[in-house]
Design brief:
The protein is globular. By secondary structure, the protein is mostly beta strands. Helices cover 6% and strands 55% of the residues.
């Protein structure tokens, strides 16, 4: 994985984190006003809280398989996240709410609005597939990854994190796993309209408008618009210039029930993020600040528009789904208000899946799915200072995939495969097997049950357009001869739960191996970076622990911890991957369930980052551990 232009500020993270020991986000002092129309708020909250509590006790796995399975019926390790219904239309910083979750490493390269990456089990950020309302939003222009800085103000309904390779179902971006985000359709909330306003330190201002445009028996249409800005802070240790950001998000939903057996869906996503930044000093001859971040007037302007259309038909025997999505993005880099370079990307996907129950084996519940997918990617790079670096490239891929699920009374087995025919790379076949078996039933005298789960799979990650053809003046030059990365991994764990599922704990061990890892190499003479394939493998392993507990009808606690060993092909610890991380969240309801409080604490342990100071022999710097506290009422 290579750095983007944002990564010129990666040194900044080292500077900012050291001053963030127990940095309380309470200091943001969010003040909001929510206006409701229609049904009284207390009635909605009480009904929805009861529903959410039932869903918590009977957690299901949604995106890992073609069927929704109870978590004890899926051998794939997952976590889910949601906030109580009073926060339905309150935008949140998703990366901060997921920080510390089992298997996740989250890093931001500077002030709010700067590049924010999420890694699963030590894999690269472009090995994490992100879905928003079922649409793939990884950007083909900026390294095939999703920048979580663009989701700092989303009204999120739920999030599911799937750990382990999902390439056999979703393609090359899912080598490490996937994160599925479901946003709110305001029309699904009894025509409730919401106005949210917030202000805080560092000149933070935010307003969100959300409401249902149409709500009938067969039609639900909603729209959410969010605008925010922040003065930020100086990401350089030199000078006093502040580096701020501003962002605008639009999310539109349309759900149409054509008949009792057929539904149509439309999702529109629009994001604009402008982030100021500073320059990393790579000037020659060298200066006293060489390799450090210095004050400069730089700005990154990001614009992405996404549309997704789907049709689902539930027949007596078959379930069919057809879908189309298109993503267009543009990222411009300016210095002193003058355009320096621009990268643009487009991704179009057509998909079709058909599934049905089968009876190949007697006395067992079985289901099979077959799917087809066509994907077209395009990329263009424009450089004002070096016209020869301007480049355009396309990529096409046709895929066939399938999954077979067998469910018995006390065990289940799921197997999936995928065959990719790519226009630029060799054909590839990937697979995934997941198994779970009940060890002790919860209806015994102990009132505790347990089950064993395990999975294994392979994955492939194609080199990104940016890694092959990208160009940033005085910073990065692509390598068109790169080869795909190949991964194989496995995990095994045990889950223990009470008979009423009010207490659920899990411990999982995982191990992964990556061949032909794409690394970034810096020329010591010019400091211009390029990408290359490593000749040796890199290894990742670790332990994930999760716990959820419901102490009463009013209080729920979730917690998680990860121990990670992630080493590159030279057996060095990989950067931006803390060895220890964790979180705890307490959700309490009060005043007859009309009030809700959420207390969260996340911990990020020590980690290494890259060091670019030519005058020192070190190429790494150690970042201190830190904690973040968040309180919402």
């Amino acid at each position: 994985m290579v750095p983007h232009s944002f990564s010129a500020q990666s040194r900044t993270k080292a500077m900012s984190i050291k001053n963030q020991s127990l940095s309380a986000t309470v200091a943001a002092l969010q003040v909001f006003t929510i206006l409701f129309t229609g049904t009284a708020f207390s009635e909605i909250a009480t009904e929805n809280e009861a529903t959410q509590r039932e869903e918590l006790l009977e957690e299901v796995v949604v995106t890992a398989h073609h069927l929704e399975l109870g978590k004890d019926k899926s051998g794939i390790n997952t976590s889910s996240f949601s906030l109580p219904s009073p926060f339905d239309n309150v935008p949140i910083d998703l990366s901060e709410n997921l920080r510390g979750y089992p298997g996740l490493s989250i890093n931001r390269t500077g002030q709010p609005g700067a590049l924010t990456q999420t890694r699963i089990r030590g894999a690269e950020a472009n090995h994490t597939l992100v879905l928003i309302d079922g649409i793939e939003v990884n950007d083909p222009a900026t390294g095939n990854e999703y920048n979580f800085a663009n989701s700092t103000h989303l009204a999120v309904e739920s999030v599911e994190v799937v750990r382990g390779p999902m390439t056999s179902r979703y393609g090359s971006e899912a080598v490490g796993g996937l994160i599925s985000i479901r946003t709110h359709n305001p029309a699904a909330q009894d025509d409730r309209a919401t106005v949210y306003a917030a202000t805080g330190s560092q000149g933070q201002k935010e307003i969100t408008l959300s409401g249902g445009l149409a709500r009938t028996k067969n039609v639900k249409a909603g729209l959410t618009v969010n605008v925010s800005e922040s003065d930020g802070y100086n990401v350089s240790n030199f000078g006093s210039e502040k580096d701020g950001s501003d962002q605008a998000n639009l999310i539109g939903h349309l759900d149409l029930q054509v008949s009792e057996s057929m539904n149509l869906g439309l999702v529109v996503l629009k994001n604009q993020t402008n982030a100021m930044g500073d320059e990393q000093d790579f000037r020659f001859p060298t200066t006293p600040t060489q390799g450090l971040v210095i004050d400069a007037d730089e700005e990154t302007l990001f614009d992405q528009a996404t549309i997704g259309i789907s049709a689902v038909k539930n027949g007596d025997l078959f379930k069919q789904r057809a879908s189309f999505s298109q993503l267009r993005s543009s990222t411009s880099f300016e210095k002193d208000s003058a355009l320096q370079s621009r990268i643009e990307g487009e991704k179009s996907q057509f998909g079709y899946q058909i599934s049905r129950p089968v009876t190949l084996l007697p006395a067992l519940n079985q289901s099979v799915e077959l799917g087809l997918q066509y994907e077209n990617l395009s990329f263009s790079n424009f450089s004002l200072g070096l016209p020869s670096a301007s480049y355009e490239q396309k990529d096409d891929q046709f895929s066939v995939y399938g999954e077979y699920i067998i469910e018995a009374a006390r065990s289940s087995l799921a197997g999936s495969f995928r065959s990719d025919n790519n226009s630029n790379f060799s054909d590839n076949v990937s697979y995934n097997l997941a198994f779970t078996v009940e060890l002790k039933s919860g209806d015994t005298n102990s009132s505790w049950g347990s089950y064993l789960h395990a999975s294994t799979g392979t994955g492939v990650a194609h080199p990104t357009f940016f890694e092959m053809f990208g160009f940033i003046p005085s910073s990065f030059k692509g390598n068109k001869d790169l080869k795909p990365e190949h991964s194989n991994s496995w995990d095994i764990g045990i889950t223990v739960r009470s008979d009423d599922s009010r207490w659920v704990g899990d411990v999982t061990y995982f191990k992964a191996n990556l061949e032909k890892e794409i690394l970034t190499a810096f020329d010591p003479e010019t400091f211009v970076a390029s990408a290359l394939n490593s000749e040796d493998d890199s290894d990742r392993s670790g332990i994930e622990i999760s716990l959820s507990a419901s102490f009463s009808n009013d209080t729920d606690i979730t917690a998680g911890y990860t121990y990670l060993e992630s080493k590159d092909s030279n057996s060095r610890k990989e950067v931006r991957r803390p060895q220890n991380s964790g979180f705890v969240r307490v959700i309490s309801m009060f005043h007859a369930d009309k009030g809700t409080s959420v207390l969260s604490y996340s911990y990020t342990g020590e980690q290494a980052d890259s060091e670019f100071v030519y005058a020192t022999p070190a190429d790494r710097v150690d970042l201190d551990s830190y904690g973040l506290l968040d309180i919402d009422l």
